[in-house]
Each structure stands twice: as structure tokens, then as C-alpha cells.
Amino acid sequence: MSLDDALRTALAAALRAELPGALAEELPRVLALVLPSVLASIRPAEREMMTRAETAEFLGVCLPQVDRLAAAGRIRRHMLGDSPRYYRSELLEDVRASGGADASLHRVVALPSRVNAEGR
């Protein structure tokens, strides 16, 4: 089941309990139409919690480098089940704290157009 399907199912189930019959029956069709565009409007660059791949793109490094940085304690990693996740705000703090001294994070510090003060 995809994330879209899971969200649609969960929302429909929660709202069905609160809505009258005819409206509750129409809800899955409405969610199927609306939810994909809502999810698409949330760009990865605007999300606080990022996947390993999003983190690599954000930092401008390869995936193995993200793993090395996390293993060395240079960036903070959080586990969501078996999957590593990284918080944008913590990455920005880690980059600022390195002050460019960490060559692995230097690209992010040196490229303000890629990562500005708001992390976008």
C-alpha cells in the first residue's frame, strides 16, 4: 500500500465515523481526487524530516557520505523503524557548528544559494 493509499484510507475511516451516511460514502472519491495534489504540493525541500536520499541532495553529497557523516557524529541521525531520518533544522545547525571546518559539509556552507537561513 502506497503512502497516498494509506493516508486516504486512514482519513476516510476517521471521517466516516463523524459524518452522516451519504457524505461518508462520497468521502473516498473526494479524497482520491484531492489528496494527491495536496501531497504533491509539499515539496521535499520544505519538509522538516528528510530521508537519506533527500539529505544527500540537501547536503550536496553522495548517499555513502551521508552514512559516513552520521556514523562519525557530524550530522544527527534518527531511526524511524529501520530507516534513517534527518531533521532539516538539525542539519543546518550541524553545518553551522562545523563552521566550514568539516570538508564534507563545506559544500553546504559554501553554497548559500542551495541552503539559505531558512533551509530552502
Brief summary:
This protein has helices spanning about 5-15, 20-40, 50-60, 65-70, 90-100, 105-110, and strands at about 50, 80, 85. It is mostly helical and about 120 residues long. It has two domains: about 5-40; about 45-110.
What features would you describe in this structure?
With 120 residues, the chain is mainly alpha-helical. The protein has 2 domains: 3-42; 45-110. The protein has helices at 3-16, 21-41, 52-59, 63-71, 88-98, 103-110; strands at 49-50, 78-80, 83-87. Strand 2 (78-80) and strand 3 form a beta hairpin. Helix 3 (52-59) packs across helix 4 (63-71). It is elongated, with a radius of gyration of 19 Å.
Offer a few descriptive terms.
120 residues; mainly alpha; 2 domains; 59% helix; elongated; disordered C terminus
Termini distance?
Answer: 31 Å
Shape: elongated
* Helix and strand pattern: HHEHHEEHH
The overall pLDDT, averaged over residues, is 74
Strand content: 5-15%
> How many strand units?
3
- Return the structural class: mainly alpha
Largest sheet: 3 strands, antiparallel
Biggest β-sheet: strands ordered side by side in the sheet: 1-3-2
Radius of gyration: 19 Å
- Please tally the helical runs, counting DSSP H or I stretches of 4 or more residues: 6
Q: How many domain units? A: 2
